[in-house]
Design a protein that fits this description.
UDP N-Acetylglucosamine Acyltransferase, domain 1, four-stranded parallel β-sheet, 4 helices, alpha/beta
Length: about 180
Amino acid sequence: MYSRTQASGVSEESRHERLERHATPGRRNALWHWPASRSPLRVVVQYLVIVLCRILPSLRAKNWLYRQLGMTVGSGAAWGLEATPDVFWPERITVGADAIIGYDATILCHEYLQHEYRVGETIIGERATVGAGAIVLPGVEIGDGATVAANSLVVADVPPGTTVAGVPATPTEGRVGEA
């Protein structure tokens, strides 16, 4: 499994330091300039595949289709219904073996801001769990065996085996759902 972390399980740099930054010209916000950053035809095709996968019940078919978009998807990875990977840069997503991406979770690899857009690799480790409705921002690495609670916003790396919850997601005592 690809990982940016040290043996301690903590990355040396923050997600912001790992993101590629691209300035956008003119007075409009960066999202207005998206066709200059990605081929509109490519984005349409990726969007259609992702919309299909969001409602497709077959985990094998989802993983195969996502691999065709350039994602790295490990054996046994499971995407819940309505889960959404990044539409613009799906090839920058890595999901480890036996990881779970829960219902309606969103995995992002880009941020369009006022004067720039940012792009980065987003990594979900082996046997990691991203809960329903969670959002993982670009450049984040969720370590092997880590858990992200439902409806959390992940703005920083999650060390292996750690459970995080909240907005923004912070470590919890024990694992979510344990007494």
